[in-house]
Hints:
Order of helices and strands of chain A: HEHHEEEEEEH
Number of domains of chain B: 2
Largest sheet of chain A: 7 strands, antiparallel
Oligomer: heterodimer
Distance between the termini of chain A: 61 Å
CATH architecture of chain A: 2-Layer Sandwich
Distance between the termini of chain B: 74 Å
Radius of gyration of chain A: 18 Å
Shape of chain A: globular
Structural class of chain A: alpha+beta
Strand order of the largest sheet of chain A: 1-7-6-5-4-3-2
CATH topology of the largest domain in chain B: Arc Repressor Mutant, subunit A
CATH class of the largest domain in chain B: Mainly Alpha
Strand content of chain A: 35-45%
Number of helices of chain A: 4
Largest sheet of chain B: 3 strands, antiparallel
Helix content of chain A: 25-40%
Helix content of chain B: 55-70%
Largest interface: A-B, 29 and 26 residues
Amino acid sequence: MExxxxxxxxxxxxxxxTLNAPVExxxxxxxxxxxxxxWWGPNGFTTTISTMDMxxxxxxxxxxxxxxxxxxxxxxxxxxxxxxxxxxxEHTSYPQFVSTITFEEQGDKTHLTWHMLFESxxxxxxxxxxxxxxxxxxxxxxxxxxxLKDQQTK
Amino acid sequence: MKARRDxxxxxxxxxxxxxxxxxxxxxxxxxxxxxxxxxxxxAISLHIQILIDCGLLVVKQQGRERICEAHLNQLSEVxxxxxxYRQHFEQKLDALETYIEKIKKExxxxxxx
Lengths: 154, 113
């Protein structure tokens, strides 16, 4: 375990959160297309889930619709699905990574962990750089929109 | 063509990351660094040159020794960008949390009807 950590720490992200809901509810929100579509995309985005076949080698295809009208297709393959415990999927469109989500029952609450592992440090840095460019661009568009709104009300 | 040198290129190579880690803990001379690695002295010299070009390493002459020092200010830029990327996923968890509260309220409402 020690070894594994030191080998991957420069190409992974790890998040965790204790959610105020029993594991059955959190699992339902994560695994039902009609629910996950409501929270998956970034702020201001909507999400359309076209396929969500939750079994090993099952496909997961979704499109995130950005506020500026652009669409972002995401393709993944589920690798492991253990009811109320664990989901592993491989994001096969860019950027490629393996995502592992664990659900741990804590009475009425659920401790969720989310681990994302990229193929290499180089690729991870590339993704981060691209993301920075994207976010920077989006923030500029938002600023411009806010500015235009402001101008129109004057 | 002259290769572009930036901080990302500096940390793209595992040996260079190891060199940075080593001298970040304590400045060290070129020979001592070379001995720690299972590659040729020439290879280490090249890595050190790239780190110098990227602005992450400075060599100071002390008598007959060439001491390598780490200059890590630029690395915080990388860390900030990684943090920004991480925040993007924290936002997903925020949205999940908010959505769960909404669903819980809706279902409680249905039960109380």
